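2024-03-11 09:14:02 INFO queue: dequeued item Flavin reductase, len=188
2024-03-11 09:14:02 INFO validating residues
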Amino acid sequence: MTATPAPAATPSRTVPSARAAAPDGAAGPELLRSAFRRHAAGVAVVTAPGGAAHGGGPVGFTASSLTSVSADPPLLSFGIGTGSSSWPAVRAATHVGVHLLREQQHELAATFARSGADRFAAPTRWRTGPEGVPVLDGVLAWLVCRIVGRVPAGDHRIVVAEVVTGDPAASAGRPLLYHHGRFNALRD
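2024-03-11 09:14:37 INFO prediction written
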């Protein structure tokens, strides 16, 4: 019996392990952030009617964690930090608005991501929509959803909501993306 020669060694890149990301050997928040900076995600704004904690005014935040969950019934989900200024209103809300942003709406996305900003002041264009939910004008699509669950997940909640109405083609255009810490557009 003759031995088969081993294949020639091929050059390899050193890939840092998850343990290399944290000095104590445990994967931590920075490992997750670093990996997801490389993951392009669509950008949405989630809105809710305000409550007493917000002086009755509407609330909203930028989300890149939006996910389609089920077609029948039509469910989606998004994450929200429990330390977010919008969390008390979302926790109390029965309905939320979900808005898919156009590639030109990076300023709107930045406004809704900025802490302490008056997100519904000019130049933001919006109206009160079904179920009292704030609906943003000029977005690719908007949905009004009934919240059916809030699932604890670390320092966040995963909100599951059922679509009740909306406009899937509110405006023409291409989606705004979030990638590597910046708002971006698709390239052909």
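2024-03-11 09:14:37 INFO annotate: The longest strand covers residues 141-153.
2024-03-11 09:14:38 INFO item closed
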